[in-house]
Amino acid sequence: MRKIMFAALVVIHGFIHLLGFFKAFNLADISLLTQSISKPLGILWLLAAIIFLTVVVLYLLKSGWWWIPAVLAIILSQTLIISSWVDSQFGTLANILILPVSIVGFATWLFNLKVKQEKKEVLLQSSPQDKTLITEENISNLPSPVQNWLKNSGIVVKEKIRTAYLKQSGLMRLKPNQEKWIKVEAEQYITNNPSFIWKANLSMIPLINVVGRDLYLHGQGSMKIKIASIIPVVNVSNNDKLNQATLQRYLGEIVWFPSAAISPYISWEEIDDLSAKATMTFNDVSGDAVFHFNEKGDLDKFTAQRYYETDESAELKEWIAEVKETNIVNGVRIPTKLEISWVLDTGVFTWYKFEVFDIEYNQDDS
Asked: The pTM is what?
């Protein structure tokens, strides 16, 4: 609805500029325009209309640079309005409404450009030349429930997964007492070396976009959330507690590319027939978690003691990823529906329910 309303405003504003062109070339009797308009100015009124209509097309096609012609159109439009102020002054209101949306468009483009650069850095962590196969010998030293999981996932006698690209769609709550769920659309790149980048759009505020980005690179975590792609509400990095929590998140996300379970930075310890503890150590940061499986070899849940916050007073809390559905995607059996919860002093806080889809593997040049 927000996009339709904005597009409609720009279309109407663009067509109104045609009146100046018609007036200049006597193509119609425009009684609303009392001031004379020269033919050169008339051509500029036509040009402004064309640019505004071009803006609408680019905006609806989700072009990242639609804001560039929008700013040019606003400057040209306002110059023409000033030249015919008596007749055209109310057009200033439309330009005032279009300008902030264009600024947000610029900020979104800038945010996406930064994420794109970070994505390239993440993908550089993969090893595209590594075409080795996962064999039963590779997993023979792992605890039996982990072996069962890897065999059941379908990765044995297949090429090692170096990168995973996936999309998520779900609902999120930011606080335990928050009743309204926020719609989330996200995409993520993960590599086996290890690193990941997660980018999300959150429908938190009507008519205003909220974007988020989580990054794990070179053993360090980073979190950003921006309102309208401009105003930072979360911006945390270079934080020891965040580094450990992000490492543990990465450890949990190997369920989407199970071959990472045999990585040299992950060690395993059997707990019982259906669970095993994984400890990950990378760049002098360590964290562990417990993988719980069912008798078929599917993951039932993933639990860890993670930092709930990142400030000095942050405490370790139980973090649970519970699998609700498992499917075969691109030849690999993986969890596709999950619910993520924290066990707080006030009770269990389920904060993210989501579905994973459109998974691609070993797209190193994505």
From this structure: 0.88
**Angle between helix 2-24 and helix 39-60 axes, rounded to 10 deg:** 160
Q: Provide the b/e sequence for 75-94 (b: ≥16 CB within 10 Å).
A: ebbbebbeebeebbeebeeb
According to DSSP, residue 161 is labeled: P
pLDDT of residue 364 exceeding 80, the answer is: no
Q: Is 117 contained in some domain?
A: no
188: in domain: yes
Residue 338: both structure tokens together: 């999950």
SS3 194: coil
Handedness of CA 5, 8, 12, 17 (dihedral sign): positive
**DSSP character string of 127-144:** -TT--PEE-HHHHTTS-H
| Tokens 């600024």, located at residue | 103
Domain that holds residue 90: 2-105
Q: Do 95 and 134 share a domain, yes or no?
A: no
Contacts of 22 (CB under 8 A, 6+ apart): 28, 30
Distances, alpha carbon 304 to alpha carbons 192, 279, 284, in Å: 20, 10, 19
Distance CA 277, CA 99 (A): 54
| 65 and 133 part of one domain | no
DSSP run (H or E) holding 68 = helix 67-83
Output the six-digit token pair for 5: 């309303």
Tokens of 281: 């150590």
Answer yes or no: do 193 and 65 share one domain: no
Say if residues 308 and 234 touch (Cβ distance below 8 Å): no
CA–CA separation, 101 and 70 (whole Å):
9
Q: What is the pLDDT of residues 109-120, one digit of tens each?
A: 999 999 999 999
